[in-house]
Design a protein that fits this description.
The protein is α+β, with helices and mostly antiparallel strands. The protein has helices at about 5-20, 175-185, 250-260; strands at about 30, 40-45, 50-60, 65, 80-85, 95-105, 120-125, 145-155, 170, 175, 190-195, 210-215, 220-230, 240-245. The strands form two sheets. It has an eight-stranded antiparallel beta sheet with strand order 1-9-8-12-13-14-11-10. A six-stranded antiparallel barrel has the order 2-3-4-7-6-5.
């Protein structure tokens, strides 16, 4: 079920007001606990300590959507997924640590090209997540994304800085394919979206996170998966996301195939 315009005001208007009030940190704002419920942290772990790898997006209580390159050279038993984290230095009581049953990278993912192609993957959680809120839905129609859009993560807050302990978010503008081509002087990938380029946006450590956007019908949907960028939120250099709608057939088929195996 899509979120209605009422949710857009509840979510988007609150963030817009926060943006006017908060002190900016490298173009971002500190998120309150529970403010970005769909975002998870994908981490390598030895089960005594862990190291953040990428962000991911909850699409259900047991599936996470992320960038395929985040899982290169990894094994499920080396990973866990953390939900409900706002500040890595605090135990806020909302955190859930989920093991990874398995993950699947898109069959046409090409890691040796620059940029990546079909940079999409799904992670199956074990056990399933206890979820106490709604999630923005995946796009169910080709209605174009119009924005505004929001992205979030624990990535670096400036070029060369370490990752942030606090979850940060920012509003970003969508760019046309023509603008994206001009920014990188290259043909635009038809399976990708560009957003940002205003000096605020994704940085090192934010890869794999989701881009939530308003679509042409006025609904908030999960529109993109953060794949790559040049530099750290550089003006004129937008972040590039895999367009989730372009991969819906694969996402649905993969999840349904898993359900049949369970039966």
């Amino acid at each position: 079920m899509k979120f209605t315009i009422a949710f857009l005001c509840l979510f988007g208007c609150v963030l817009a007001e926060r943006a006017r009030q908060d002190t900016k940190i490298a173009g971002g704002h500190v998120a309150f606990p529970g403010e970005i419920p769909w975002l998870v942290s994908i981490e390598a772990t030895n089960f005594q300590e862990s190291w953040p790898l990428c962000g991911g997006t909850l699409v259900s209580t047991e599936w996470v959507l992320t960038a395929a390159h985040c899982l290169d050279s990894e094994k499920p038993e080396w990973l866990w997924v953390v939900s409900g984290e706002a500040d890595r230095n605090l135990n806020e009581g909302s955190e859930q640590y989920l093991y990874v049953d398995y993950f699947i990278q898109h069959p046409d993912y090409i890691y040796w090209l620059n940029p990546y192609q079909n940079d999409v993957a799904l992670i199956l959680l074990d056990p399933v997540l206890d979820l106490y809120t709604s999630l923005p839905p995946l796009p169910s129609s080709p209605a174009p994304l119009t924005g505004p859009c929001w992205e979030a993560g624990w990535g670096a807050t400036s070029e060369g800085a370490p990752g942030s302990d606090k979850l940060m978010w920012t509003e970003v503008a969508l760019l046309s394919s023509t603008q994206c081509e001009a920014a990188y002087n290259a043909a635009h990938d038809p399976n990708a979206l560009c957003a940002g380029a205003s000096g605020a946006g994704a940085c090192v450590g934010d890869n794999g996170g989701g881009l939530a956007c308003v679509d042409g019908d006025g609904y908030v949907v999960l529109g993109g998966i953060m794949s790559w960028r040049e530099g750290c939120a550089l003006p004129g250099k937008p972040a590039v996301y895999m367009d989730i709608y372009r991969y819906m057939d694969w996402i649905i088929a993969t999840i349904q195939s898993s359900e049949k195996i369970k039966e």
